[in-house]
Amino acid sequence: MAAAPPSYCFVAFPPRAKDGLVVFGKNSARPRDEVQEVVYFSAADHEPESKVECTYISIDQVPRTYAIMISRPAWLWGAEMGANEHGVCIANEAINTREPAAEIEALLGMDLVRLGLERGETAKEALDVIVSLLEEHGQGG
């Protein structure tokens, strides 16, 4: 089987995008027979001290999560890409590193995409969420 092509993100801003719109997208380098879902999750309030079950680990839930629309492999909790009710868009990109992978269960990059969208009202807040979660839980794959 041939190696999957790399994934790429794109964004087009006015005047290249018409009617003042911003266009955001990403292709997927996932296996061609893997089911991809496009899913909407409503904003929600959560009980104090509740947990959220990510792909491989559970972490503390926040009091309120924003509404999100995501694209994800059907078996996965996280997201390849998505947007939230505040217009924040995030996509997952794989990169190669020389650092060895952690030997513990941790958050996946796609978990971090979803968590950033659920918890970030702005791009800066989403970035801060992702960095904080990486520091606390690490990243696996």
TrEMBL record:
Coiled-coil zones: none
Any GO MF annotation of the entry: cysteine-type exopeptidase activity
Record-linked InterPro entries: Peptidase_C69 (IPR005322)
Stretch forming the signal peptide: none
GO biological processes: proteolysis
Annotated family: Belongs to the peptidase C69 family. Secernin subfamily.
Protein name as it appears in the record: Secernin 1
Record gene name: SCRN1
